[in-house]
Amino acid sequence: MQNVSAAGLGIGQAHPPRIMGVLNVSEESPYDPSVYDDPDEAAEYVDSELLDEGADIVDVGLESANKRFEVLTAEEELDRLDAAVETIERVSGDAVFSIETRYSDVADEALSRGFDVVNDICGFADPEMASVCERHDAAVVKMASPPDLHRPGAIARVDDIYDALASEPLTDKTIFDPAFGGWSEEKTLADDRETFHRLAELRKLGRPILVSINRKNFLGDVVDRDTDERLPASLAATALAVERGADVIRTHDVAETVDAATIGHVLGRNRE
Predict the structure, then answer these.
(1) pLDDT < 50 positions in the chain
(2) What is the pLDDT of residues 203-262, one digit of tens each?
(3) Which among 138, 183, 229, 257 is least surrounded, fewest beta carbons within 10 Å?
(4) Which CATH number among 3.90.850.10, 3.20.20.20, 1.10.10.10, 3.10.129.10 corresponds to the domain 4-267?
């Protein structure tokens, strides 16, 4: 297993699971508690609601990845980057900052202005993404996706997800995300369940694994709960995911997820 250093934070089998909290500077993002457009308020949220509760990484979203919304251009994302940079400059706590983007130009600018990690939701569909991250010696999350900047995560079959992740180019600091969630009409809740069942297989590719399963629909389908009632299911799934090899858990519920990930790590038996 290849371990990764993200601005000095170790990620991988040799380290405990890391928690990635979420901040959105995108007004269209659906989860209101994480959405801020004022840098001072955003920084306070990061310090008091994410870092104080145990987040190791803060993932900053410039736009919603929800397929209901139009995809922003690189120029439109860059217009929003100033607010994100001003936010991380105001944060007093110690954190690794990740920028969620599909564009190498945005990644390059963000890494030049204080960000540490790139969370690429289009899986290197931008052909320059890998080289930009290598030039900055930055860790990068590669989410399973077709090679299309407008269709992130729209892969249904688990075998195809794994093939997409393993395809070149890769960097020495690439982290894999199998892309849970309703990214396309073709991808079903059953596909997400199968991906989860087979999560341990992803470790055979030799890279750290990030999962974003917090309150996802496939969990709600199992327990028949709406989004605001899915926290217990999310925590149970988090413990299982860590036991099956997840190294980073992306979540809106940081404090609770820290405990669930710790249980999966300490009591799990399948991370070797």
Answers:
(1) none
(2) 999 999 999 999 999 999 999 999 999 999 999 999 999 999 999 999 999 999 999 999
(3) 229
(4) 3.20.20.20
Domain boundaries, the chain: 4-267
- Provide CB contacts within 8 A for 202, sequence distance 6+: 162, 165, 176, 178, 209, 245
Helix residue ranges, H only, 217-253: 217-223, 231-243
* CA–CA gap between residue 37 and residue 247 (Å, rounded): 30
Please report the pLDDT score of residue 77 as a whole number.
Answer: 93
Closest listed residue to residue 143, CA positions, set 90, 87, 101, 204: 101
Q: Residue 82 — left, alpha, or beta (φ > 0 → left; ψ -120 to 50 → alpha)?
A: alpha
| 184-199 confidence digits (pLDDT tens) | 777 899 999 999 999 9
